[in-house]
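Person: At home tonight, work slowly through the protein below, taking as long as you need, and write a paragraph about the fold.
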Amino acid sequence: MPRVLISDDLSPRAVEIFAERGVDTDVMTGLSPDELKKIIGKYDGLAVRSATKVTKAVLEQAKNLKVIGRAGIGVDNIDVPTATQRGVVVMNTPFGNSITTAEHAIALMFALARQIPAADRSTQAGKWEKSRFMGVELTGKVLGVIGCGNIGSIVADRAIGLKMKVVAYDPFLSAERAVALGVEKVELGDLLARADFITLHTPLTDATRNVIDAKALARTKKGVRIINCARGGLLVEEDVKAALDSGHVAGVAIDVFPVEPARDSPFFGRDDVVATPHLGAATSEAQENVALQVAEQMSDYLTTGAVVNALNMPSLSAEEAVRLKPYVTLAELLGNFAGQLTTYELKAIEITYEGQAAELNTKPLTAVILAAILAPQLDTVNMINAPVICRERDIRVSETRVPTLPNYQTLIRVSVSTERHKRSVAGTLFGGRPRVVEVEGIVMEAELGAHMLFVRNKDKPGFIGNLGRTLSEAKINIATLHLGRAAPGEDAICLIQVDQELSDDVLECVRALPNVVQARALKF
């Protein structure tokens, strides 16, 4: 059974879901980094929230780890690049706490508009400062939403229900989606200039870090109010504090900080700031949802190969995984074939999907082919890190789809280019079983076995007899033999399945035969 470590607090129902789906679990929370490093090597999966830090040092000890599941949306606590390099899928649950976080942003907006926290403190202190806490209405105000994805779109919907005008900045928001949401898609500068309230709902990336700084604040209306329930690094805190001090910004509501837990902040102690301790996802419903989702996603990946909400791998449903299974086998065989014949530095890999194969979700298949091609050269390559390795090594990868075929219902062709050669191999499925149907432009039909002998030769009389006699003398039994040639007397290829591994001595005898150009032992 696959084995998963749950290292942060999750709903007990998550353990039940893992068990129901055939996955064993251990629950050990509060582990120190050293304790986690000592035990992580035993597990296929790691389920975390935000407390566990999955660092490079931890991942280096995770010899069997296949998947990390984050119960929540943010993965700041996971070294995703290192996980990818080591072939570990990283998943999150972007939808489980979307409503809860959006509602918290709306709650903070109300709290800012009516100064509720400060008024509460004053009233409970026995004061009655009714004239001090003059608020503003939300109705008719302009809300600027920076980041209109899962959470931002829900905030926009709720704000429209409050009769607010919503303008949104998001480079990935299409015009059609904006119309469907009822928001006006604008550029960032326009949003800053028009918004009475600004709410942030973007991930923390190089493009979004410090998006609200002194320069941005200078473009905003006097009296603007800012809400941040996304990531602490989106605001330059000192710049926002200065704008509060000057009165240009009327108030700020923050649920996230650059360093958490936040023990100190330039925002603390101010009546014009509403602060909460990262409560965006802190409802019983959200906690239950993300725990159940991460257990389901991890279980499905470990037991069926289905990939959902992964950050470093294409999505693949359980239904697709079943449908793609024979194609994955074919893709791996073709990639392995091409990789074993490649002896010089790779420059380019071209993959063509033809016929029915062109209609599939081909991203996982391409990843499998790349991993299989690289496997003879690298020990730790798999379908997760193979695309990254190709980019790092400047290996050009191209993918083409051809919807119709004259001879086959479905075909995958893999071409590999080095500084000296370009070689290709193509295969199809016969009754769900993979078959090679073309090697280096030569048509042939072969079913690959565990041990194969690949021979490139000149098509001359006596070749087959010499080859058979050589293998017989070496006591090598032939299981199947497949032949193909470009033209009579020209280049030919012979693929022989044998019952045992071929020694170097046997290969040298084959290479010494007349008309042999190349001979290699292949393993599948």
Observations:
- The CA atoms of residues 67 and 89 lie 5 Å apart.
- The chain is about 35% helix and 25% strand.
